[in-house]
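Morning F.,

Quick status update on the modeling queue. The single chain you submitted on Monday has been processed. Sequence for confirmation:
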Amino acid sequence: MTGDVPIPAGEVLAQVERLLDRVDPDRGQVAPETRLAWLRIARKVRTRVDALASLLTAEAERTQAAERTTGTPLASWLGMGETLSRREASGAVHQARTLAQHPQVARAASDGKVGGGQARAITKVLDGLAPQLSTEQRVNAEKLMVQLASHLDADQLSKAAGQVLAEVAPAEATELLEVKLQREVEAAHRARSLRFYREGASVRFDGSLPRLEAETWLAQLDAHSEALRRNAIEAGDPATEPTTAEQRRADALITLIHAAANTKPDPGVGAARVIVKLDYHQLRADAAAAGHLGDGEPLSAGELRQLCCDAELIPSVLNGASEVLDVGRTARLVTPAIRTALILRDAGCTFPGCDIKANLCEAHHIRPWWDGGDTALPNLVLLCHTHHGIVEPAKFTLRDQWEVDLADDGLPQFRPPARMDPQRTPIRHRRHQPPDRPTRQLMGVARC
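Structure tokens below.
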């Protein structure tokens, strides 16, 4: 059988399963670079198999295969032969139905060009734009988002609605985006909920909050969580119980609960400090002007007005009053103004592949303070504490390690260790990569 002759899906899957049964479990002598290459291939194969499973699920639902064969709905049939909960089975059917409604995305996922998270992000954006676009525009939007997936990750794709509208409906893009954002705000308000489940000595909860209120809450929790982590490090007590990030966030919530129980709140006091990216002239000229949160999440005009009323607003308006962004050798720690500028420029940990948000990052001196480096924006980058340790140079030793500097355009770039890339070719985080130049992948670049 030649390689270009199509093979039925069932036969391909049977061959894959038989080959997996023959995998040699002894991998003790495998070289590190080979392990990473296998890992990359395994993840790509999994994505393609997951996409095929979703398409087969959608086809089985469309043809009512389960009802005709077993007399039960497809979700019930899935639960019969697998250890799936009812919720998991229903979710698999819903996800498959959504993917099947976007054939270009489904084809790209089956070909291994789009990952599972990217596919979900794309379909969510497309479904949100669909009511405002014609059939031709929807087809063009889907094609564009599949192309964007070659160099944008799932988080970036989930925020690409404005870019898509500017391409497929340029004349009305601003108005369409504002309508979409406002519709999402209203839907989030209707969907707000909070549920508690008592389980022995614990109480589990889940729910949904509108974005602005949730971001304020998360900012408070993360600030307390980071303080708890630093206090534990400074204490240096070997008897201190190690905690995870999730445990520290839970401890932060407990702290806030105790504080609220002992404090009489004052209305309108204690609002969150919010960084918003906006255009000054557009804001003055257009009542519908929208901004972005510091992490790039778009805001509707209504949300922006609400922030202006209730929060300590820090707009990134370049032609407004400026603050000093260079304190030289007078201070080692960054000032609030410098940190704000860092957040606006870096938007989070700048190490390639890391998605830690800016409020949990530390300001790293590119030229160390102990070596005469200034506390100034051109000598600083944001790094999470994990990658800060990877990049931080030792004072009296030389080691083959990652290094960071600023490129000619003022954005951070990283040079990998020579053992990984003898040429030490600079790479960047996806959010700092030009749209026409996909990020070069290196095996071994890890996420936190």
